[in-house]
Amino acid sequence: MDAVRIEAAQSLTEELLAAVATLLPQLSRSAAPLDAAALERLLRSPAVRLLVARDEAGTVIGMLTLALFPIPTGTRAWIEDVVVDESARGRGIAAALTQRALDLARGEGARTVDLTSRPDRDAANRLYARLGFKRRETNVYRYELD
What is the reported pTM? Predict the structure, then answer.
């Protein structure tokens, strides 16, 4: 992997807002764009770590969201919204983002880290298996609030 730096985004900047605006449509066609206020809320949330990958020039080329929250049975950790810019894929950046999230979750006392990935995302599913994630047999339910 080229020199890529993984860091937790700490504050709202125009550069971060533009990077998220570029990356989010590559992840989901249905996700609404984040405005500055929404991104600021995400960055201020005590339950969320927005990890970004920066290339040698410091440009944001990937992101991952780690949610950490206490529940009665312990600290839960959940990975969401992993995306690497299409121009930078195949260089191990998603693996580096995911590994950093696992390290952070471990440091916060989580015993497990969950994520979901659609079956048609072949590369992502191979990555998660290679990193040691195990597929769980479970029923996932979703209630649409709209």
Answer: 0.93
Q: What is the CATH number of domain 5-130?
A: 3.40.630.30
CB burial of residue 141 (10 Å; 0-12, 13-18, 19+): exposed
Among 39, 32, 45, 41, smallest CA distance to 13 is for 39
Predicted pLDDT at 26: 95
Instruction: Give residue 19's pLDDT band: very low, low, confident or very high (50, 70, 90).
Output: very high
Looking at residue 33, the DSSP 8-state letter turns out to be P
Which sequence spans correspond to the domains of the chain? Answer: 5-130
Q: Which residues, other chains included, contact 60 with Cβ-Cβ below 8 Å and sequence gap of 6+?
A: 15, 16, 19, 23, 52, 53, 54
